[in-house]
Design brief:
It contains one helix and 15 strands. With 206 residues, it is mainly beta.
Length: 206
Amino acid sequence: MNKTSVMAATVALTLALPTFAFAQDAGTMTLGLGLGNVMPKSDNGSIAVPADLDVGDNLRPTITFEYFIKDNLGIEVLGAWPFKHDISASGMGEIGSTQHLPPVVSLQYHFDTGSTFTPFLGVGVNYTAFFDETAKGAIAGSDLDLSDSWGVALHAGFDYQISERGALRTDVRWIDIDSDVKLDGAKIGEAEIDPWVFGVSYVMSF
């Protein structure tokens, strides 16, 4: 076989191979299962005692669903198992705990790289519902309440395709979460949580 024939066969074989770019055409849907670690910022506001607040980190399972409304452009919904955070105050130690659900709806653009590596950027809105607040330590026995929160959410990450319909995802979110803190019905401060959320997941397209 001469060189021309070899080159022609190579080109033909290359064209016949499947494209490994992760599917992101209009009408495509993806489902992601993974873990998310919520890490509130270091300065979480203060209460009227006075004392500075500190809200702890938490790791929980997450689920995402995305529908591509156009090629490369999708709407994603993030859900999770309820996150639980310990709340401490300077000079008082741990004063309580709370759980919350932070669903996020985002509009996301996935960059078409023509390869197994697909980065994306997104922006959306978050609604955080707090529940099961428990007063502890110096305020044990009191009624601790955190108000629900609406805020902006930013999202960035990448998918690395490992099969025709499967990819590994690494991502990070920043979510604006601010909540009024009440004790026995009276507002005593504001918790400025504003966490970074670091995630890893397996994403399936269909």
